[in-house]
Description:
Layout: E1 27-30, H1 37-45, H2 51-56, E2 72-75, E3 80-82, E4 108-111, E5 117-119, E6 127-132, E7 144-147, E8 160-171, E9 178-194, E10 199-206, E11 215-218, E12 225-228, E13 237-243, E14 249-250, E15 255-258, E16 271-276, E17 295-305, E18 310-317, E19 321-322, E20 326-328
Antiparallel strand pairs: 1-2, 2-3, 4-12, 5-9, 6-7, 6-11, 7-10, 8-9, 8-11, 9-10, 13-15, 13-20, 14-19, 15-18, 16-17, 16-20, 17-18
Amino acid sequence: MKIRLLLLLALLVMPSIVSAAGHDEPAIYVIKQGDTLWGLSDRFIKDPEYWPNMWSKNGQVTNPHFIYPGQKLRIFPDRIEFVPQEPVAQNAPAAAAEPLQEVAAEKTYTLYGTEGFLAEKGFKPYGLVVGGHHNRKVAGVDDIVYTDIGSEQNAGSGDKFSIFLKDIAVKHPVDSEEMGYKMIPLGTLQLTDVERKASRAIITKSYREIGPGAYLLPYRESHRREIALKSCRNDLKGYIIDSFSGVNIIAAGDIVYIDLGSSQGAEVGNMLYISRDVTIDQKYVEGRIDKLPQELLGALVILETGKKTSTALVVKSIDTIYKGDRLVSQTK
Length: 332
């Protein structure tokens, strides 16, 4: 294998596996969407590194990345085996239904609404915060601010808007192409008095200090939303181009921005692997090596997509991750 497999789709809760009482008969587990060899090995025998053994001894699994819902496993205390799929003879009587064991819930990841995004070329805010009460430059919860949103935009008293800070321009780490501006969530406001081209508003929630020039967008719910994993329709390849925090060193739990969006076929819930090319001193290889296996660093899940960029959550890191590290939808 050119790259060591790290499959993260199934950090799932251990399901209840029922064995025949008083016997050494294995329990039967039915594979569910989101399961992986890595996850199954970790879950049932507490050894995520066992998966190559499962793969090598089961010819029906020709690619370790692809196991399918409905496949059955025999679970022993020290090993896991696939139940061979037997062809059904034509006109054969239906076999008695085998009781299904409880299956773990499909893995999901949580979107809180405070992850931010990249404002791509052509992006325009709905409006701006143009000032604070008594010309205050900094506002927080329950403070009064003024906006350039009015009745001409069909706005009315009680309308809510999300507040963002337009931060630095993000450039691609490979070719320095400007990918967009980082948009940092600041909070929410609600209009109270609306004129034709302006309005008064009250800050209803703040994550950071809010001041004149802040962008206003249609209200974005900030409550938790679950993101279910979804298989990639296309073969995706790209890069991590920045992090929410702006730091260069990235780890599990960090929010990052990537150069893959809806125009490339990226979708919310897609999991991508993070990798890096391995380089060695060429004086020791004397032209015998063309390309080394890539180093697998971790994985991320896409939370929100733009046209050419997406916001993602790093869900696993086994080594330090940096801006500029590569992304692939499947390992080889």
